[in-house]
Amino acid sequence: MFKGVQDCSNIRWIVYFNPSITIRIDLLKRITIISTIFTAVSMTTLVVGASGATGRLLVEQMLERGQHVRIIVRSTDNLPSEVISHKNLSIICASILDLSESEMAEHVGECDAIVSCLGHNLSFKGIFGKPRRLVTDATRRLCNAVKENSPNKTVKFVLMNSTGNSNRDLKERISFAQKCVIGLLRLLVPPHADNENAADYLRTKIGQSDGVIEWVAVRPASLTNEPEITPITVHPSPTRSAIFNDGKTSRINVGYFMAELVTDESLWDMWKGQMPVIYNV
Ligand SMILES: NC(=O)c1ccc[n+]([C@@H]2O[C@H](COP(=O)([O-])OP(=O)(O)OC[C@H]3O[C@@H](n4cnc5c(N)ncnc54)[C@H](OP(=O)(O)O)[C@@H]3O)[C@@H](O)[C@H]2O)c1
């Protein structure tokens, strides 16, 4: 593993590069300059789950970067007033799975990227009630809507996922004990299966050469709330047990990494079609 450090404006972040992609390190500075010019051109990103604890931090960071942001929320109660009134924010008040196919196609129209920070609310109804396939169905329907529009550019899809889910494109080794616990979670805790199925949809149905949609499934460890962005490490696979020794990832860092993926072409090229794991340092 190679440890690289990149300066992004006044923010420092640390990436552990997979040996197979160390060649990119030499190119990184030049690519960063190109992408800085590129991101001066504002893009439009649709964020679902934008009222959630992570989603709203992502929206703030996207707006700070001068991006246009569209959000689909059931309520704006959790969003700060300066975000709600921001000139670059469009708000669609709806429950994502209640939208018709044509409404969905309209809302993803002209979007350069879609980010899902959806998650089941941590209540009995949220965990065991309907919709049990919230994240998977939203992912599938949003991707279908993108394709329905036949865009003349590729659209990025970023999914907030979890270290509890393995990337089955890679041989991620987990202990027998962890396999047993994950198997029980899959059976007994619907949101876990939903997170797995959503990533599997991107991995197997969209795949690596879709031509319309490119995707990244971001896997944070146990989520924490911190006031500021701090250094993170990014890995192709978990470096610790998600069940017995999970690390920590602050929601603001998840928002930061997702915003970077959307706006930094070199970072996108590095991780597209993969399921990067991020930990706070
Ligand atoms: N907890 C952890 O340690 C951990 C670790 C790794 C990954 N994750 C994953 O990270 C994701 C997001 O986490 P978070 O803490 O930011 O989530 P969160 O605060 O619970 O936000 C969830 C978002 O999903 C929306 N949502 C929930 N049920 C919905 C429904 N039936 N229809 C439409 N929208 C609905 C919520 O909207 P409302 O505001 O309207 O309810 C909210 O915007 C989840 O998928 C979770 O599995 C969690």
Structural class: alpha/beta
CATH topology (level 3) name: Rossmann fold
**How many domains comprise the coordinates?**
1
Our estimate of the beta-strand percent is 15-25%
What about the largest sheet? 8 strands, mixed
Bound molecules: NADP nicotinamide-adenine-dinucleotide phosphate
Strand elements, count = 12
Low-confidence stretches: 1-12, 16-40
CA radius of gyration: 18 Å
**CATH class division:** Alpha Beta
Short description:
The chain is of the alpha/beta class. The chain has 10 helices and 12 strands. The N terminus is likely disordered.
Structure description:
The protein has a single domain (42-280), classed as Rossmann fold (3-Layer(aba) Sandwich), CATH 3.40.50. Helices cover 39% and strands 22% of the residues. Strand 3, helix 2 (55-64) and strand 4 (68-73) form a beta-alpha-beta unit. It starts with a strand and ends with a strand. The strands form three sheets. It has an eight-stranded mixed sheet, sandwiched between helices. A two-stranded antiparallel ribbon has the order 1-2. It contains ten helices and twelve strands. It is of the alpha/beta class and 281 residues long. The structure holds NADP nicotinamide-adenine-dinucleotide phosphate. NADP nicotinamide-adenine-dinucleotide phosphate (NAP) binds at residues 49, 51-55, 74-75, 78, 95-96, 117-121, 131, 134-135, 160, 162, 191, 195, 220, 222-223, 251. NADP nicotinamide-adenine-dinucleotide phosphate is lined by residues 49, 51-55, 74-75, 78, 95-96, 117-121, 131, 134-135, 160, 162, 191, 195, 220, 222-223, 251.
